[in-house]
Amino acid sequence: MAISKTKIYEPLTTSRAINLLKELDFFKKDSILTCNEIGDGNLNLVFQVTEPQSGKSCIIKQALPYAKVVGESWPLTLNRAKIEADALKLYKEHVPQFVPEIYYTNDDLAITVMEDLSSLKITRKGLIAGEEYPHLPEHLGEFLAKTLFYTSDFYLEPPAKKILAQKFSNPELCKISEDLVFTDPFFNSDTNDFEPELYDDVQTLWNDFTLKLEAAKLKKCFLTESEALIHGDLHTGSIFTDQYTTKVIDPEFAFFGPIGFDIGQFFANLIFQLLSNPKDKERLISGYIVDAWNTFEKTYSDLWRKESREKYTEVEGYLDFVLKKIFQDAIGFAGCELIRRTIGLAHVEDLDGIFDNDLRINAKKASLQLGRAFIKTRGHHIGPESILPLLSETAAYAAINKE
Ligand SMILES: Nc1ncnc2c1ncn2[C@@H]1O[C@H](COP(=O)(O)OP(=O)(O)O)[C@@H](O)[C@H]1O
Ligand SMILES: CSC[C@H]1O[C@H](OP(=O)(O)O)[C@H](O)[C@@H]1O
């Protein structure tokens, strides 16, 4: 597929999206098509185009030259569409079963035409609706192990990895995470957004200098440790699921960063479910975290032993050192994610959607408490079992007043 004339960027409308797909011969010129803009994320346009007669459909995602959630006052590079498409193409090489098919990309138009995954559900929404996904933890564990191993110095020749890292240089999107995940929530910043009932807890957090020192170390790790190509925004809104299938979308924040970041974001976004429904979901969510980590650890260790090209991977103790560092980073990053999604700019429906005011505030207080504990105690944890008591305590705290 190719567009004959050179196109200049303009934001798509539903009719432009339809015309584009006909021009690309994705649909016949005389097809009757329907098109809806279904994007519910913070940044981009997402169009679903369907031919009702045949049932054929696809998705066109387009970056806007600004952050959609804020508007034109927050300009943002269109290059993020290329980063996202390139990351999905790279994932396709290593984990084709876990990503959508990409049909067409155009960097000038900042668009990706991809498989319509609407037969699956966004994991966050499915979990909120009470669904369970038995294969999600093992699928994510495998996705994480393979994408993070195959793009690291343990597999790639270091010069090749450095060249790949240049291709995924993503300064504007990284800056968003540096600010919104690591800095703003820890200070009295304009971007923060929280209920007045949380004010005392937030003051305590802002005055906790041990916490701030540890958050600074985590930010430094995010800024400087180019371990592997990370997704960069791997929350449960970036994963489509059903009982058998898992598909990861939306890697526009991808760059070469610390491996623990993706794992920590995934864990934290599972934990929001535990906080929103502590009595019913503690076992389920704790189990998902343990299973995801165990699959990650096993898959990553197998790859390390069988496919590593780094001489030092033969040295006894090195794998254990690397895995421990990844886990401890992940717990720290999970702590930052818990805090920023509670009091920062971008919230999650798991918490904001709790209708009862007392329960919502309680869940958010529990989230802040767990976030702080994760950040400060991460150095003591060597595997998922050791965080289970903290998850239990947090669930008990969040469940207060629930009768
Ligand atoms: N391949 C797809 N198939 C079906 N729906 C999709 C697809 N990609 C995105 N969507 C829908 O669009 C929403 C926003 O997509 P996302 O990639 O997360 O955008 P943003 O980058 O703005 O966060 C998703 O929550 C989902 O509902
Ligand atoms: C102003 S961007 C805020 C927030 O939005 C991104 O999420 P998504 O694209 O999935 O909606 C990312 O998490 C950013 O931190």
From TrEMBL:
Annotated GO MF terms = ATP binding; S-methyl-5-thioribose kinase activity
Residues that, per the record, bind substrate: 233, 340
Q: What is its EC number?
A: 2.7.1.100
InterPro entries recorded: Aminoglycoside_PTrfase, Kinase-like_dom_sf, Methylthioribose_kinase
Q: Which residues bind ATP?
A: 44, 61, 115-117, 250-252
Q: Pfam families, alphabetically?
A: APH (PF01636)
Key word Transmembrane present: no
Q: Name one GO biological process term.
A: L-methionine salvage from methylthioadenosine
Q: Where is the signal peptide?
A: none
Give the pathway: Amino-acid biosynthesis; L-methionine biosynthesis via salvage pathway; S-methyl-5-thio-alpha-D-ribose 1-phosphate from S-methyl-5'-thioadenosine (hydrolase route): step 2/2
Keywords of the record? Amino-acid biosynthesis, ATP-binding, Kinase, Methionine biosynthesis, Nucleotide-binding, Transferase
Q: Which residues form a coiled coil?
A: none
Give the catalytic activity: 5-(methylsulfanyl)-D-ribose + ATP = 5-(methylsulfanyl)-alpha-D-ribose 1-phosphate + ADP + H(+)
* Superkingdom: Bacteria
Recorded hits in HAMAP family, A to Z, give: Salvage_MtnK (MF_01683)
Q: What does this protein do?
A: Catalyzes the phosphorylation of methylthioribose into methylthioribose-1-phosphate.
Cite the NCBIfam families for this sequence. MTRK
Homology family: Belongs to the methylthioribose kinase family.
* Protein's name in the database: Methylthioribose kinase
Which lineage?
Bacteria, Bacillati, Bacillota, Bacilli, Bacillales
Q: Which gene encodes it?
A: mtnK
